[in-house]
Design brief:
Strand 1 (about 135-140) and strand 2 (about 145) form a beta hairpin. This protein has 11 helices and 2 strands, in the order ααααββααααααα. It has a two-stranded antiparallel sheet. It has a domain at about 5-120 and about 140-220. Helices cover about 70% and strands about 5% of the residues. The radius of gyration is 19 Å and the shape is globular. The model is unreliable at about 295-298 (pLDDT under 50). The chain is mainly alpha-helical and about 300 residues long.
Length: about 300
């Protein structure tokens, strides 16, 4: 393998790692506050990618596209918690401890079928966000790299950094961490637990929205792409450790790079090998690679 190929594979791995990090952070923050996850997180990404693609094809400015997508995803995130998940808390034992799994999967299926009805089954690419063509290339250390890949890396990791600041440096983020530690204590401290949990699912949906906008020009957009992102985001979060936000980021980078190199050596089963690696590592370290040295958020 030449140095140029190595650098290109590394950048491609960082690109996908940034997308997986955004998706996995949505799973992480929901699990942190509620011990639940949205198994339709990848399908939220898919809906965001389709909305973004439709608006970009209609020549809507990128800033407006991003605003519309984030607004739509915020409503989806709020609706998921308020309409689909909160009633389960009122039912309590009658609903079952893991009823949220089927509920979020059901929402995912609804989104998949809605996308199929509206946009059809055919795969498509979103127009580029900030370049004239999807094939625009810049030179990095003498290697040609697609502009959109660089944008995904920069924006993706910037958003991850902002998410970290939200969680540890803002009042709302501290409220999330208190709820994660003890919801009853949070109530005694005057924290509106229900409102904060709604905010958590809105934040998770916004992360899916951003990753959907960024993913459109990079991967093919089709109704069932969300399942793939959900599975890989779960693998990334498990690899990094569900209680460690920096571990999730590290897990996303490791997974993205491993996937890039695996596809280079075996394109037929390249997506399978990173998942098998994660499975093997979890057998050895069930808490994830960074599950012990984690930030104290619980």
């Amino acid at each position: 393998m030449s140095a140029a190929n190595f650098l290109q594979l590394l950048l491609s791995g960082l690109t996908m790692g940034a997308l997986y990090a955004l998706t996995a952070k949505g799973l992480f923050v929901a699990h942190l506050a509620t011990t639940r996850m949205n198994f339709g997180q990848g399908d939220f990404l898919m809906i965001a990618a389709y909305i973004s693609t439709a608006l970009l094809l209609a020549k809507v400015p990128v800033v407006v596209v991003v605003g519309v997508v984030l607004l739509c995803l915020a409503v989806l995130g709020w609706g998921l918690e308020r309409i689909a998940l909160r009633p389960l808390d009122r039912l309590k034992a009658r609903a079952g401890e893991y009823s949220w799994v089927l509920t979020t999967m059901g929402v995912a299926l609804i989104l998949q079928n809605t996308a199929t009805l509206v946009w059809g089954k055919s795969a498509q690419y979103s127009p580029p966000l900030f370049s004239a063509s999807r094939q625009d290339v810049v030179r990095v250390l003498g290697v040609g790299v697609f502009v959109e890949e660089l944008i995904v890396i920069v924006v993706g990791f910037l958003v991850v950094g902002l998410f970290y600041l939200f969680l540890f440096k803002t009042t709302a983020g501290r409220a999330v961490r208190v709820i994660a530690f003890n919801p009853d204590a949070a109530t005694l401290l005057g924290i509106d637990v229900k409102r904060t949990i709604s905010l958590v699912f809105v934040v998770a949906a916004l992360l899916a929205g951003i990753s959907g906008v960024l993913a459109g020009p990079i991967v093919t957009v089709q109704p069932h792409m969300g399942l793939v992102f959900t599975v890989k985001a779960l693998a990334v979060a498990a690899l990094g450790g569900f209680a460690n936000p920096l571990g999730v980021l590290a897990g996303a980078i490791i997974f993205g790079i491993a996937e890039s190199f695996a596809n280079y050596f075996n394109s037929s089963f390249g997506d399978l090998y990173p998942l098998l690696i994660v499975l093997g590592l979890l057998i050895v370290r069930p808490t994830g690679l960074f599950g012990e040295a984690r930030a104290d958020v619980r």
